[in-house]
Amino acid sequence: MSHSGDHCQQLYDQLEASNRALKASNLELQQFAYVASHDLQAPLRHISGFVELLARRYQGKTDEKADLWIGETLKSVELMRSMIADLLEYSRVDSQAGDPVPVDLNSAFEASLLRLKAPISENQASVTSESLPTLMGDPAQFTQLLHNLIGNALKYRGPAPPEIKVTAEKGEREWTISVSDNGIGIDPAYHRTIFLMFERVYSSSKLPGTGIGLTLCQRIVQRHGGRIWVESEKDEGATFKFTLPIHSGPLPHWPTGKST
Ligand code: ADP
After folding, report:
1. pLDDT in tens, 55-68
2. 156 Cβ below 6 A of ligand 1
3. Which residue CA neighbors atom 7 of ligand 1 most closely?
4. CATH 1.10.287 domain span(s) along the chain
5. Phi, psi at residue 44, to the nearest 5°?
6. What's the fold here for domain 3-95?
């Protein structure tokens, strides 16, 4: 082998080694999230059981402050329960994925609408799509992705009835899918942080949520080899965009082993 051939081989070996290390640490993190959230459920159930007992026996029978404190504790327990459930779901994105198959995104769109029937009619929303492509991936995860983005578009609505559009544009190597709405919009200062776990723009917001929906979307998109971002201004609606590669071979980020 020539001198430069040697050098190439060395670089290749180094890259492979760091790739293996990254995969291992990623798997460890997934397992950590799974075990942590799974094991947190038992003591939380214990706490909530006792606070519910307290509420049942003493609410309205002691003083106003005690009632308030019991109520606040119950609310926090409920929030923590949702956060743990979401964390578990996040840890399962890789481990419980099926093998990639061709997925008609029109069907994923229809399936997500079915799950959002109630908020769509309550908000008198119009949710439409242009003809969407068929791409390789996990059908349940594509449905979840559209469900989370359309669900957010409904939740963060403005004063006018929500108008939500899902469109697709074909590039040379990838498709870009957009989910646009006419809701409250997002100040550019938050465009990156909203994708972080448990981050919300208004953490004390009256709207329910744990701030993990977009983190899940990002995880799903990334494991399919794509990117996700938002284009928006405050009060001007938001457009979430994600790319999905046009693959002919296997997906590069697909996990090889199922851990849980
Ligand atoms: P959650 O809805 O539980 O807070 P997400 O991770 O889905 O969690 O969203 C994070 C934050 O991003 C939300 O709290 C909200 O402030 C903002 N956001 C997400 N989608 C939209 C949207 N379509 N319009 C305006 N703000 C949004």
Report:
1. 899 888 888 898 99
2. yes
3. 213
4. 3-95
5. -65, -40
6. Helix Hairpins (1.10.287)
